[in-house]
């Protein structure tokens, strides 16, 4: 075999990424050093340097731990602090090993090293059994979605290679692992110092007939771990080497891209077909993970960095709201109300911390109520993002379900997140609701003018009149006439309508469920601020979802929120419609039209039910004005 064939054979080997973890002094670095040494993966000059530096035992044997402890502090203290990566190869497979710290204070380092691993190697000291640190690292490995877990019971030479000790540790760890989401778990008794069952079977464990550590890693089947169903290709670069070529570059994170496939571009929703797939070696018929490729399309469409390519009938969730498990990595705590840059695949957006649901005691797996996450803590956090994310749950797709948080000032990575299931992704943010009262709230707390003083000066009480009904039901006309009537009578009021907000405050929002919820939330928050300053607010919104309207009432304050149902039959709304919206909905040209393809849930107990069959908008205004007078809000 010539050198070219040898290099080609080596390039075609499968790659396994392995993360190691364990308690302090369990022997992780020694095991890795032994693995490298016995598999002939260490150069002679490296061994000579270790011998000459005095890093050897009294009997002349090499101290294998120093093959991986790269930092000066690690060599001095005999512990692992940072993640040390080691690369080696056998005739069957290539390996990247991440030797991660065992100290609790370096949890963030352990999570970093394990984030891309195919398998986790967790060491347990045979003398100590399954300790808290062993459970911590197993939990973090499970949280990070590592599909394979190898438990190496080390230092068997110090317990006389006792089968009873090994079986007890195996039973204890299996009981704990039953609480975790671990697909595959295997146990091997080893002595990293003596080399038993690391690369070769040892004669000291005749009762063990399973694979060695190296044999297990060489033969571990990982191809099925890749998601080849859901095509996710985030765009990194638009390539224009000349005027005749426009290619789109990116890494295939999951799924398979084939020439001729119909694809859709997110978030725009434009579609086309794959014309060609280009690589360094020429055109390909297929691209699959973890390949990076350039492809061209049959149509000229707008695609840029941060967009995502998917198959038309298999797309990820798209939302500005998400919940995730977060590993916090910064000295300054993560707190509700703070904002960070969120980097997801090739897209970066601003993320606002809505709430910290809880943190997890990684030693006991119990949940603790908290309002913040501190360095090395892990917890569940709710986010609101300024841009929409095309994301999958982390359990389904590790690439599109993960993100990092970046401090916008220091540009430091401060956290890593794993997105939870689709229910959490798609759920409109109900947590926006707050218990507002007629007393001064946060918006007026700093003012020297009390709400009572404002009401006395304006001769009115603040309230929000929320008109809800189908498109073209007449609610906008009623709202305008009501505003004029209150103004002419000396009142102070402001009119908010869906169209007005969408031309400004909600200009970037779409018409799907999460964005409609956000649009209405912004309207309610604006109304609350106006009410806090003594002003009457008239809101005219279709707002078809009854549960969302309940949330809006909580934001504004139930005693201020007057829900007025403008009840107009659908056939009458069609006749009144001057925009042609219903006609377009019938033809399928637009979606999410209340009363057509989107259910409208009528209020069951509104403050006022205005049946528009047989009455004029002026009559409706008089009824609302009468309601305001009866409630002592404003007398007209």
Describe the protein.
By secondary structure, this protein is of the alpha+beta class. It is built from 17 helices and 29 strands. The protein has a six-stranded mixed beta sheet with strand order 2-3-1-4-5-6, sandwiched between helices. A six-stranded antiparallel beta barrel has the order 7-8-14-11-10-15. A hairpin with a 3-residue loop joins strand 10 and strand 11.
Number of strands: 29
Question: Quick check: average pLDDT?
Answer: 85
Report Rg. 32 Å
Low-confidence stretches: 55-60, 71-81, 422-444
Return the structural class. Answer: alpha+beta
Helix residue percentage:
25-40%
Shape: elongated
Note the gap between the termini.
98 Å
Query: What portion of residues belong to β-strands?
Result: 25-35%
Q: What is the fold named in CATH at topology level of the largest domain?
A: Rossmann fold
Strand order of the largest sheet: 2-3-1-4-5-6
Query: In CATH, what is the homologous superfamily of the largest domain?
Result: P-loop containing nucleotide triphosphate hydrolases
The second-level CATH architecture of the largest domain is 3-Layer(aba) Sandwich
Largest sheet: 6 strands, mixed
Tally the helices. Answer: 17
CATH class of the largest domain: Alpha Beta
Domain count = 4
């Amino acid at each position: 075999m010539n050198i070219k064939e040898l290099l080609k054979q080596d390039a075609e080997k499968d790659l396994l990424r392995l993360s190691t973890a364990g308690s302090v002094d369990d022997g992780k670095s020694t095991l890795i050093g032994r693995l490298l040494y016995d598999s002939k993966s260490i150069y002679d000059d490296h061994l000579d340097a270790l011998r000459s530096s005095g890093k050897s035992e009294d009997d002349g044997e090499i101290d294998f731990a120093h093959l991986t402890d790269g930092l000066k502090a690690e060599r001095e203290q005999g512990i692992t602090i940072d993640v040390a990566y080691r690369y080696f190869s056998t005739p069957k497979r290539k390996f990247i090993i991440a030797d991660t710290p065992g100290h609790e204070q370096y949890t963030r380092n352990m999570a970093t090293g394990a984030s891309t691993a195919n398998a986790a190697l967790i060491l347990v000291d045979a003398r100590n059994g399954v300790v808290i640190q062993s459970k911590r690292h197993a939990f973090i490995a499970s949280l990070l979605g590592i599909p394979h877990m190898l438990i190496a019971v080390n230092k068997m030479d110090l317990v006389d290679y006792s089968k009873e000790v090994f079986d007890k540790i195996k039973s204890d760890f299996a009981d704990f692992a039953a609480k975790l989401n671990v697909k595959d778990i295997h146990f091997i008794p080893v002595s990293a110092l003596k080399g038993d069952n690391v690369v070769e079977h040892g004669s000291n464990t005749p009762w063990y007939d399973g694979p060695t550590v190296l044999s297990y890693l060489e033969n571990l089947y990982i191809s099925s771990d890749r998601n080849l169903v859901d095509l996710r290709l985030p765009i990194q670069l638009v390539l224009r080497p000349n005027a005749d070529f426009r290619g789109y570059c990116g890494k295939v994170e999951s799924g398979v891209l084939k020439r001729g496939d119909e694809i859709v571009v997110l978030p725009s929703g434009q579609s086309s077909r794959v014309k060609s797939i280009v690589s360094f070696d020429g055109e390909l018929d297929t691209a699959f993970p973890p390949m990076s490729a350039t492809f061209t399309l049959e149509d000229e469409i707008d695609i840029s960095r941060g967009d995502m390519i998917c198959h038309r009938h298999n797309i990820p969730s798209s939302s500005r709201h998400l919940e995730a498990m977060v590993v916090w990595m910064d000295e300054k705590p993560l707190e509700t109300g703070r904002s960070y840059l969120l980097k997801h695949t090739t897209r970066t957006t601003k993320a606002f911390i809505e709430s910290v649901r809880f943190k997890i005691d990684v030693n006991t797996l119990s949940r603790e109520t908290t309002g913040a996450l501190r360095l090395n803590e892990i917890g569940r956090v709710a986010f609101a993002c300024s841009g929409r994310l095309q994301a999958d749950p982390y359990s389904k797709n590790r690439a599109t379900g993960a993100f990092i948080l970046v401090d916008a000032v220091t540009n430091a990575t401060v956290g890593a997140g794993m997105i939870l299931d689709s229910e959490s992704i798609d759920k409109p943010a109900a947590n926006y609701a707050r218990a507002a009262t007629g007393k001064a709230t946060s918006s007026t707390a700093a003012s020297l003018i009390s709400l009572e003083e404002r009401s006395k000066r304006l001769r009115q009480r603040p309230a929000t009149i929320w008109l809800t009904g189908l498109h073209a039901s007449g609610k906008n006309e009623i709202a305008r006439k009501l505003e004029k009537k209150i103004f002419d009578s000396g009142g102070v009021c402001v009119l908010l309508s869906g169209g007005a907000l969408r031309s400004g405050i909600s200009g970037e929002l779409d018409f799907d469920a999460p964005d409609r919820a956000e649009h209405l939330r912004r309207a309610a928050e604006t109304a609350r601020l106006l009410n806090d300053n003594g002003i009457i607010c008239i809101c005219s919104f279709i707002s078809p979802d009854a549960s969302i309207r309940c949330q809006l009432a909580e934001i504004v304050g139930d005693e201020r929120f007057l829900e007025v149902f403008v009840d107009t039959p659908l056939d009458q709304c069609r006749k009144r419609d001057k925009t042609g919206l219903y006609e377009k909905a019938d033809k399928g040209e637009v979606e999410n039209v209340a009363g057509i393809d989107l259910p409208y849930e009528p209020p069951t107990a509104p403050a006022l039910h205005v049946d528009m069959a047989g009455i004029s908008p002026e009559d409706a205004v008089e009824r609302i004005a009468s309601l305001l007078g009866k409630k002592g809000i404003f007398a007209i």
